[in-house]
Design a protein that fits this description.
27% of the residues are buried. The protein has 17 helices and 10 strands. The chain is α+β, with helices and mostly antiparallel strands. Helix 5 crosses helix 8 and helix 12 packs across helix 14. It is 45% helix and 12% strand. It has a 5-stranded antiparallel β-sheet, with helices on both faces. It has a 5-stranded antiparallel β-sheet with strand order 6-7-9-10-8, with helices on both faces.
């Protein structure tokens, strides 16, 4: 951040570019102009006497603890002139009864600290100011996430304050090997970003690459928090919808991934953690797989895989069989459409795909007290009357209802929509080219998975490609957790 160079005037010092002056009046004049204290009501500054010297404190209203500030001001005002230290370093060591105290002389660091909520104290004659991190952020309670739930296990979740989130991880990993490095990105927002990893287990080449990308982010602000950061870190091909990051709001899941050697990225103001690098097998895993015994966890994992495949294949396969009814075995003749088809099946499927997303958006914006009655109304109107009116056939409604409900078995939104997009491509190609279109759509799906790469550049479908049977078995079957021999 550039600063003005004030010319030398009688009785006043010159402020060096980027540095504060030892003159309190010069510093206040510059800082009041930069912060716009006359226009911003929440930026507070107050001139006080500390040990017989003029001093000025700057803080953001709402970020500082009132009781603590009152006690510190009382302590400062009680300092006698003969007890006053000669510089900021000695002042921070002897006269500030607080833990988190730092010093700064660069305007860029000082202004960023003030806007982040740090209490800043300037003292006339000192060439450094004192940064006292006594801030507190407005925060909600640590409660279980609405989306990322588990039948067993802890019921706490990440919140929007990054310091709380790092504490939730530290609570689970009490190891000196755990590292949490702080970065900032965004010219205007200066958003805090924390990389969490185990120093002895992480891929240091990939870690350094991540650090370099974060340090070279050219953006005014991370307006959408983690999504903005994800797009800055990985310039992915827009036509491949499969996710490159795994998101979780569960501290236990984030801690488990850190212990496996992954990097967890926390972004201030975001209640979820980004896990990288991740493959398709990492994304489909959930906490419930490990909160139950191995046989139950394996069943849950395999059923999730199977249901995901069914959500992709059910509707295109039904459309293909309706085009070639002679392929339907005699014992399965009941699946054929029996009523009159007023609208082609392909249009029924596409309209319902759109309608399902419309219902999801409506559910998000519906007040909680109205969600249940409106859900019942939507089920009755869209389910019963749409069939009776002839717009949709009962069989189409049945299969799309299964797809809509089964898509919620995936915790990851991006993966759910990636399967949806591939399913729509399959429906369109099957309608246009029949069996050849169906096969071509499956090939497109496989090509999108195989050609995809993780953020670290490795195979997206490892350990399937390259094949590693032992690791593939661990991905599909939930084994007992290993025990450490002492």
């Amino acid at each position: 951040m550039g600063t003005e160079t004030k010319g030398t005037r009688s009785g006043k010092e010159e402020i060096k570019p980027g540095n504060i002056s030892s003159s309190l009046s010069e510093n206040m004049h510059y800082l009041n102009k930069e912060l716009g204290t006359d226009a911003s009501f929440d930026i507070i500054y107050r001139i006080v006497q500390v040990g017989g010297k003029n001093a000025c404190m700057y803080l953001i209203d709402g970020f500082c603890k009132d009781e603590l500030m009152q006690k510190m001001l009382q302590y400062f005002m009680d300092i006698a002139p003969e007890e006053m230290p000669k510089d900021a370093h000695e002042m921070s060591k002897k006269c500030i009864p607080y833990v988190e105290v730092d010093m700064a002389a660069k305007w860029e660091q000082i202004i960023c600290s003030i806007l982040s909520g740090v209490f800043v104290l300037f003292i006339d004659g000192y060439e450094q100011c004192l940064l006292i991190d006594a801030r507190t952020y407005p925060a909600r309670n640590v409660s279980e996430p609405e989306k990322d739930k588990a039948l067993r296990g802890s019921k706490d979740g990440f919140v929007e304050t990054v310091v709380f989130n790092t504490a939730l991880i530290r609570r689970r990993i009490r190891s000196t090997d755990l590292r949490m490095e702080m970065f900032q990105a965004g010219e205007s927002s200066k958003t805090d970003i924390v990389l969490c990893y185990m120093d002895s287990r992480v891929d240091h080449g990939f870690l350094e690459e991540l650090k370099t990308k974060i340090n070279h982010i050219q953006a005014d602000a991370l307006t959408m928090n983690q999504e903005s950061l994800a797009e800055c870190l990985f310039d992915r091909k827009w036509f491949n919808p499969f996710p490159k990051f795994k998101f979780t709001e569960r501290p236990d899941t984030a801690a488990a991934q850190i212990l496996e050697g992954d990097v967890v990225i926390l972004v201030d103001n975001s209640p979820s953690a980004m896990i990288t690098p991740t493959s398709i097998f990492d994304i489909v895993e959930e906490a419930d797989d490990y909160y139950f015994p191995p046989i139950t966890g394996s069943y849950l994992r395999l059923s999730r895989f199977l249901i995901s495949l069914m959500t992709y294949f059910v509707t295109p396969l039904f459309l293909l069989l309706m085009q070639r009814p002679e392929w339907i075995p005699e014992s399965f003749r009941f699946i054929a459409v029996k009523d009159i088809v007023n609208i082609p099946l392909i249009w029924q499927f596409l309209l319902l795909e759109l309608a399902i997303d419309g219902l999801r958006l409506a559910a998000v914006n519906t007040p909680n007290m109205l969600s249940t009655p409106l859900s019942v109304m939507a089920a009755l109107v869209l389910g019963e009357f749409s069939v009776n009116s002839g717009w949709f056939n009962a069989e189409v409604m049945l299969y799309m209802a299964f797809v809509a409900i089964a898509s919620y078995t995936q915790q990851n939104y991006e993966l759910s929509y990636a399967i949806k997009f591939m399913r729509i491509i399959n429906l369109i190609l099957t309608q246009l080219f029949g069996l050849y279109g169906f096969v071509a759509a499956v090939i497109i799906l496989l090509a999108a998975l195989i050609s995809n790469r993780t953020v670290s550049g490795k195979s997206y479908v490892y350990p399937l490609i390259p094949l590693n049977l032992k690791q593939l078995g661990k991905r599909l079957i939930r084994y007992r957790l290993p025990h450490t021999e002492k």
